[in-house]
Amino acid sequence: MSETVIKFGILGCADIARKKAAKFAADHGFPPGTQAYGSYDAVLDHLEVDAVYLPLPTSLHAKWAVLATQKKKHLILEKPVAVDVAEFDKIVEACVASSTARMKEFISDGRAFGKLRAMHTCFTFAADPVFLENDIRVKPDLDALGALGDAGWYCIWAILWGSDYELPRTMTTSRGPLFNKAGVILSCGASLDWEDGRVATFHCSFLSHLTMDITAVGMKGTLHVQDFIIPFQESEASFSVASESGFDGKPAEHLFSTSLPQEAMMVKEFSSLVGAIKAKGSHPEMRWPIISRKTQLVIDAVKLSIERRFEPVEILG
Amino acid sequence: MSETVIKFGILGCADIARKKAAKFAADHGFPPGTQAYGSYDAVLDHLEVDAVYLPLPTSLHAKWAVLATQKKKHLILEKPVAVDVAEFDKIVEACVASSTARMKEFISDGRAFGKLRAMHTCFTFAADPVFLENDIRVKPDLDALGALGDAGWYCIWAILWGSDYELPRTMTTSRGPLFNKAGVILSCGASLDWEDGRVATFHCSFLSHLTMDITAVGMKGTLHVQDFIIPFQESEASFSVASESGFDGKPAEHLFSTSLPQEAMMVKEFSSLVGAIKAKGSHPEMRWPIISRKTQLVIDAVKLSIERRFEPVEILG
Fold first, then answer.
1. Domain CATH for B269
2. Under 8 Å CB-to-CB from B109, ≥6 apart: which residues?
């Protein structure tokens, strides 16, 4: 971790912002009494602020992200994203970096896993009536993508992660998506296919019990994860793998300990990136905006396929 | 279990037949030296034979099943099935009856699981080169349904099981099925949807590592099974359930012991059915041909959707 001090500005009042700032401050021995400002502009105008976190509704991202960028601030956006959001994806991956790296190692192992043939990902949670009535994620003028943007985004990201970020050839939204009265997606799924015969499906919903699955099936091995969004245990991530096993081969479970709670790890990883840029003049990584844009392309295709009555949509990078 | 003696005739020479006969004979203390006949007709003509097991290629099912029925024999057919095959489905369910009943109890529990919203099933195994070249399951004139009939059949059956055998409204085969040179399906998947917003997907393949998943997501609970075809441990079946749990709620694993190896259980269950008919004049259950026909309807729809270039197919019971 870089030892350069990074000053964060937070625009917004979502729960996650307060939680993250407090947790990070506590974990890293920051002085209490973080400065509060009366307006977002005041934060952006503060010369000592290095990085800005925007826990705002998606529809407000563009305005404040552009302003923050103009003020030369590093930027963390909440997903779903629709503009240049280099850092956000980095954070998503960083939050589960230790087990993600081990999983990637397994599915990249030609002998243990072989060529990837099929993936299925699922992220659902049962939103309560208050959420379904009032949350910004179900308001067409705020987060019009609904469950697709909020939960499906992770499903698509995980599928692309498994495919080394190679875009599928076509994407077809499955019949039976559910919408609220305002037309915001509450539940949907899709199937994707690649030139080489790889296939994938995902399902996301605000209307079902918490489920956070990745299943990746290779020619020689299988990977199962049941908590890919947030590990069931804060300081432990787990997945199970099976390799060249038969009907008597119960998959082995792998547990990975992380030294910090994941929210702290997210911020630590981001600080480290910003620190490197600030202290050493490194250039921001271009890998993350590319991955983020690909996820967004698939999101767009899911919407387009719905508009076209579930016709397949070609994905052109 | 009925104590009526049931005499089995076996037509065919598949591995499973020899294994099952030997296992059953051993488990039940049958005298060694089971009678062998020079022709299938001779078995069917034997008046003392109560039941006939036909481990034959699908294309030969119709002929020998009809002949056996004409000779008043009870019948076990291997799937995939295309004619009246009441007993076979019973066996498929019976083989995992004890844990299946517990799983069904969970997903039928309105408080613990709630309404079913989404299912995903997957059955894949990596066939070896000899299988892919020579097995009857990849020959268009024998088992033209390939992986769909052999592996997909279980996936579809499991989805219908989860839906209380209510047929979906439409079925759309996913793009990217794989075929051998003779046009037999080696890998495919599909998505299904019901009137009430329930959805399901499945994937089956001869080209991927052994994977045998059921995921059922209800409004209040989630069920995961990773060995729904054949339990990893012969005398133990397991599944995990989560109910109204949050991000800190690791699913509980449930283990069920079975008193007999599952192949013996299959035959025991079938014997019990036949015994009841023979000893008490019970009528064969009509539930199983109905379920079997529904599975076959979905299989037909998968094929039709492929022929129609992945258009959705309406399922009309």
1. 3.40.50.720
2. B221
